[in-house]
Design a protein that fits this description.
The chain has a single domain (13-174), classed as minor pseudopilin epsh domain (minor pseudopilin epsh fold), CATH 3.55.40. The protein has one helix and nine strands. The chain has one helix at 12-63; strands spanning 67-71, 81-82, 85-90, 104-109, 115-120, 127-129, 140-146, 149-156, 162-165. The strands form two sheets. It has a five-stranded antiparallel beta sheet with strand order 2-5-7-8-9, covered by helices on one side. Strands 4-3-1-6 form a four-stranded antiparallel beta sheet, covered by helices on one side.
Length: 175
């Protein structure tokens, strides 16, 4: 005697109900996920800037030489808006430009959706650390911009120390 086996399966109605609920949940979660990814990119950009500044400062102290940072990948672009790449180099003649014979210590990549605006009292296009880790009278602010909106600022004082602040407005990013 053959015993019939019971087949187990889902009905079409059960599958459609499950798919409808799944679509609804994913639709509600998608904006939150996009926002989370955007916040993670911003945090990553801020952490990278801190790391590059700390690296340059530490190199200046350990090598007992001037170390500068500027926008660019092969040479300094001479702009206060830093996009795509940033150079960290030993600046033996202290002019804030990568000249022949000066050593490139690091070429850093800046996230394509962000840019940094460097502002300082002397209106210099570069940032520099002296042998003792202090800035070369270039205390100022790096403002992280996304489109025309200021996200965060990294403030550097004359001793070379940094702190994070929330920008009061997005005026610097509208240029």
């Amino acid at each position: 005697m053959i015993v019939p086996t019971k087949q187990r399966a889902y009905s079409l109605l059960e599958l459609l109900t499950t798919l409808s609920v799944l679509t609804l949940v994913l639709g509600l979660a998608s904006p939150s996920l996009t926002s989370l990814i955007q916040q993670n990119r911003q945090t990553d950009s801020i952490n990278q800037m801190h790391a590059h500044l700390n690296y340059a400062r530490a190199k200046a102290i350990s090598s007992r030489s001037m170390v500068s940072l500027c926008a660019g990948s092969n040479s300094c672009e001479g702009t206060q808006t830093w996009t795509r790449h940033m150079l960290v180099f030993q600046d033996s003649n202290r002019n804030g430009k990568l000249d022949q014979g000066e050593t490139v210590l690091k070429v850093a990549t800046i996230d394509a959706s962000h840019r940094w605006i460097w502002t300082n009292f002397r209106q210099q296009k570069h940032m520099a650390f002296k042998q003792n880790g202090a800035t070369d009278s270039l205390n100022g602010t790096f403002t992280l911009c996304e489109s025309n909106r200021a996200i965060r600022t990294v403030v550097i004082n004359i001793t070379g120390r940094t702190k994070l602040e929330t920008p009061a407005n997005s005026e610097r990013c509208r240029t």
